[in-house]
Amino acid sequence: MAKPAIVAKIKLQYFRSKICTPTKHKLVVKGLGFTRLNQIVEREDTPSVRGMVAKVPHLVRVVD
């Protein structure tokens, strides 16, 4: 059997409120899996996740 490939991870922090942001930005934050402020989640480092982070750099930051 083949060994599973090692998947790169990226840690993201939701550090600024999505109140008074466009609906699309709110949906991106929800799509990344954030439910509360200052929450840190770990996601796979894929182009789609990087693109989502690039859409809301004023709300989400990359931690380490």
Describe, in plain words, how this protein is organized in 3D:
The protein is built from 2 helices and 3 strands, in the order E-H-E-H-E. The protein has a 3-stranded antiparallel sheet, with no helix packed on it. The chain is an alpha+beta fold and 64 residues long. It has helices at 23-31, 47-55; strands at residues 9-14, 39-44, 60-63. The relative contact order is 0.33.
Tell me briefly what this model is.
This protein has 64 residues and is of the alpha+beta class. The protein has helices at residues 23-31, 47-55; strands at 9-14, 39-44, 60-63.
Number of DSSP strands?
3
Largest sheet: 3 strands, antiparallel
What's the total helix number? 2
Helix content: 25-40%
Query: Order of strands in the sheet with the most strands?
Result: 2-1-3
The CATH architecture: 2-Layer Sandwich
Q: What value does the average pLDDT take?
A: 95
Query: Considering the protein shown, what is the CATH homologous superfamily?
Result: Ribosomal protein L30/L7
Named CATH topology: Ribosomal Protein L30, Chain: A
Shape, please?
A: elongated
User: Segments where pLDDT lies below 50 for 5+ residues?
Assistant: none
Work out the radius of gyration: 13 Å
How many domain units? 1
Elements, N to C (H/E): EHEHE
- Could you give the distance between the termini? 33 Å
- CATH class placement: Alpha Beta
Structural class: alpha+beta
Query: How much strand content do the residues show?
Result: 25-35%
